[in-house]
Amino acid sequence: MNEINWLTQEAYDRLQAELAERETAGRAEFTKRIELAREEGDLKENAGYHAAKDEQGKNEARIRQLRQLLEHAQIGAPQVAAGVAQIGQVITVEFAAGDSETFLLGSREEASHASIDVLSPTSPLGAAVLNHEVGAKISYQLPNGKEITVTITDVKPYG
Predict the structure, then answer these.
(1) CATH number at residue 137
(2) pTM to 2 decimals?
(3) Distances from the Cα of 25 to the Cα of 18, 60, 118, angstroms
(4) pLDDT tens-digit series, residues 35-59
């Protein structure tokens, strides 16, 4: 079962453009590079040929990743009750020491162009706050094994 990928319209359009570029000009470029490297002779010892084939494989893997991502993409954010931490929401948490952090709960595809820090819903803090309401005090474990407690102080839509 595939999970819905919530994306902003801007992120969706950017990924569509990347896919189109990789499927057209990108593929043509790698085909040309491989063809030129083949003309150099012995393929067993041809570093240019092997490098071009490797890059072509990486391009094809990214094409598959983009197709899967876009196939399951939903534009916008899931409908949630006001004040509930969900994907697509800007969340502010306060740590026990009094420091606070504000971030967008979203995908890495959003992170590359967001004007705010983006945390994945599978990150330790993202997973901890997911589906909790403003005022909730949540403890979660850091990758180093230490436990930390945060309080959700604000949740609002991104954008």
Answers:
(1) 3.10.50.30
(2) 0.57
(3) 11, 13, 31
(4) 888 888 777 778 888 888 899 999 9
